Amino acid sequence: MDFIKSIAIAASGMRAQAGRMRIISENIANADSTASAAGADPYRRRIVTFGSELDRELGARLVTLGHIEPDTSAFKTKHEPGNPAADKNGEVKYPNVNPLIEMTDLRDAQRSYEANVNVITSTRRMLQRTLDILKT
Amino acid sequence: MPISDIPILTMLRTRMQWHQERQRVLAENVANADTPNYRARDLAAPDFGHALRTASFNLSRTDAGHFAGNGAADSQFAEDSHHRYEVRPRGNAVSHEDEMLKLAGNQMDYDAVTSLYTHSLALIKTAFGKS
User: Fold this and answer.
1) What is the number of structural domains in chain A?
2) pTM above 0.80, yes or no
């Protein structure tokens, strides 16, 4: 049944977007997580990747959450000599998380999720119309 | 002759299958809206002329042991990727707006086809003399 396939595909998209949301919230939550040892690296921002995967059972290309890669950009540094995480020059490394980018990503994930919900709603309505034929 | 072989019902059923298949393709597009290098796809519109030419041809059975041939089998669906939208740096070319528009159109057309199917069945019921 093709409608079931459509719903399964949209569900895979929702799953992928929910996984992306999880990583984004991790980034936002850790935006100020400095290292516990002096001079060590703080939290490193993580990035999700998406992949398309052919599901042979459904005969459709589902979305999968690929590897979660670390963001290799440089950390921000602040001069805070009194901070326990400061190195011998008094510099503290802060995570390379930019809240503005995370919020934009969050909105993007939300919109994509809503689009998938729309697909399911529309498919359900079509399925309902098919069943309505029986009622006549 | 079974009721489902009545030409109008066969045609409507083919159309419904087409819409189902299109819904699947559109769902794939929306789900893959963030997949790198994914290009949006769509189904080619059904060719009415082709359907007209092949509709009346069926394999004739010369022996009772033969299988009943089904003239127009699968292969009616062709993937069409002529419409290219803007391609993002990630190589992805899915536009949510276009997909939502197509989805709404697909759903409305499907509603129209199911209504026609219902009405055709009502016509047959009238012929049976049951209102």
Assistant:
1) 1
2) no
